[in-house]
Amino acid sequence: MDEEVSDFWQSHSLKYLEMAFRTDKQEIIKHPDGYGKKTGDCGDTVEIYLIACDNIIEKASYYINGCMNTAACANTIVFMAENKTIDQAWEITPEAVAGHLETLPGDHFHCAELAVGALYMALSNLLELRRAQWKKDYNAR
User: Fold this and answer.
1) Do residues 39 and 48 make contact, with C-beta atoms less than 8 angstroms apart?
2) pLDDT value at residue 10
3) Do 52 and 33 form a contact (C-beta atoms < 8 A)?
4) Burial status of residue 23 (CB atoms within 10 A of its CB: 0-12, 13-18, 19 or more)
5) How large is the greatest C-alpha to C-alpha distance in the chain, in angstroms?
6) How far apart are CA 26 and CA 64, in angstroms?
7) How many whole angstroms separate alpha carbon 127 and alpha carbon 89?
8) What counts of helices (H) and strands (E) characterise the chain?
9) How far apart, in whole angstroms, are the C-alpha atoms of residue 129 and residue 136?
10) pLDDT in tens, 82-136
């Protein structure tokens, strides 16, 4: 048993471990500027919340119901999107998320796809709400 635990800590990069266990960006934002929610075939769900000023994503947060790999990917998305332009956020890919984490298990690449999908939905929602401001009061939670 101790060998299994030791193997877990030794087989993951510091970036992966930080993103998997960090919770300071896990937050539900009421009436965000952009909101996206996606559930994967595995049953995990990722929600992404965005606050933007002009063209900059000033704040991003996430909420998940899923495994540690999904948590690491959702946290990475928030880390990569904050303080970026909306166009730069559209360039975030599952490959970039997996690359940042360094040791995301290959059989959990779908977690990166799930988190990026939720981000893209939040970005789409942000742009839609900018076209119809009155919808913001009815957005998300």
Assistant:
1) no
2) 85
3) yes
4) exposed
5) 56
6) 8
7) 13
8) 6, 3
9) 6
10) 999 999 999 999 999 999 999 999 999 999 999 999 999 999 999 999 988 765 5
